[in-house]
Design the sequence.
């Protein structure tokens, strides 16, 4: 059992005052629990899914990118028209779109959504996947390309007169002025755990994203990003985005019953390479984020209040895969632990994708917002974290290990 931290009502100095919630949009009902062989878009399902995010109080949705997936720009535009408030996050690999064209596309999306566009730049963590679309640069050069890409995006959005450029990766003459965003320059997010990712993210990104990992380890990584930002002379530091795959039920005990059922199904799905891009994710992962996730999973299955790494272990840490397990109150308390460490963007997406998104909106988001409103009104923490201990209590550990050999 993890020792419970001392709790009082003092708000930690590292805590974010506000939080916004992100989910990933799904185009059809295929899931890791119940894979359906399809590469298409189920339009009715997609409409229902994104509207459920808006109704549930989510603020953003990520439109993922892969060599064999739907185009993230087009899907983001659809999200913009199907919702009034959700901010679409376009996942973009710099090798797929010339930066000035990307700036034009993103500004167009921003105009159509009246300032809701966000871009998440993916430098590329797998050489074979990059090669599928003709990108043969080694990883260190991919990150240097991302750095140049960020500079050109911002110049295309803000330069008042034509400009030329001759860099390591891009060259052009007399471009501009470019097509402008709706208002302010569009937020740029990057993620990753490599040295190059930290350097570029700390120096240039508006948002830096992490997968869910133990609290103290994540806090150290946040401090690392912010130190790089300050050393670069920045007056503001990147916002911190952290991603989890919560498994919730009415009680902690029921949540653990669901979690054990889920992981058995997920393990079977991945062993058969029956879902999405799994056939491209066999063997030891190349990206540092997946390596870290698997390292945590090897050391322990449970961390802190509710972080479960078994889901990462059975999926070879293929993408964001660590879970938070418990009742809505326990999971909300765990999310608040990360907010207290400095996260201000929290991405939660489930394994039963649509049903989980609806449940999060009904049962988890309101608890987090209620606690943050209490803090704002009183200057003190509420009692949610003190009352719902999760792995800091003996019963939770018993539920987590029930039925295991």
Sequence:
């Amino acid at each position: 059992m993890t020792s419970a931290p001392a709790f009082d009502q003092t708000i930690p100095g590292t805590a974010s005052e506000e939080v916004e919630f992100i989910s990933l949009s799904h185009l059809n009902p295929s899931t890791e629990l119940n894979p359906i062989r399809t590469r298409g878009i189920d339009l009715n399902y997609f409409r229902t899914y994104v509207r459920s995010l808006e109704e549930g109080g989510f603020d953003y949705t990520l439109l993922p990118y892969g060599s064999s997936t739907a185009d993230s720009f087009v899907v983001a535009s659809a999200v913009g028209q199907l919702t009034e408030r959700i901010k679409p996050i376009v996942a973009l690999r710099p090798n797929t779109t010339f930066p000035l064209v990307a700036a034009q596309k993103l500004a167009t999306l921003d105009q159509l959504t009246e300032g809701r566009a966000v871009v998440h730049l993916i430098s590329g963590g797998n050489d074979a996947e990059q090669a599928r679309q003709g990108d043969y640069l080694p990883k260190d050069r991919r990150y240097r390309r991302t750095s140049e890409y960020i500079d050109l995006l911002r110049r295309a959005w803000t330069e008042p007169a034509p400009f030329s450029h001759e860099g390591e990766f891009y060259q052009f003459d007399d471009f501009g002025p470019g097509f402008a965003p709706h208002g302010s320059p569009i937020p740029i997010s990057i993620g990753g755990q490599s040295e190059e990712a930290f350097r570029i993210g700390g120096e240039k990104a508006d948002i830096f994203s992490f997968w869910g990992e133990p609290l103290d380890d994540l806090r150290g990584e946040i401090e690392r990003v912010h130190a790089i930002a300050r050393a670069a002379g920045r007056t503001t530091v990147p916002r911190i985005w952290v991603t989890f795959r919560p498994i919730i039920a009415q009680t902690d005990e029921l949540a653990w019953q669901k979690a054990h059922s889920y992981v058995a199904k997920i393990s079977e799905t991945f062993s058969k390479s029956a879902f999405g891009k799994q056939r491209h994710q066999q063997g030891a992962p190349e990206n540092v984020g997946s390596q870290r996730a698997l390292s945590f999973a090897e050391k322990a299955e449970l961390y802190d209040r509710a972080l479960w790494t078994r889901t990462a272990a059975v999926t070879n840490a293929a993408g964001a895969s660590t879970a938070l397990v418990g009742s809505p109150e326990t999971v909300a308390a765990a999310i608040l632990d990360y907010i207290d460490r400095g996260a201000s963007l929290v991405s939660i997406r489930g394994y039963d994708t649509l049903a989980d998104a609806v449940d999060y909106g009904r049962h988890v988001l309101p608890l987090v917002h209620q606690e943050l409103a209490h803090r704002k009104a009183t200057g003190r923490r509420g009692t949610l974290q003190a009352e719902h201990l999760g792995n800091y209590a003996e019963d939770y550990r018993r539920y987590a290990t029930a039925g295991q050999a």
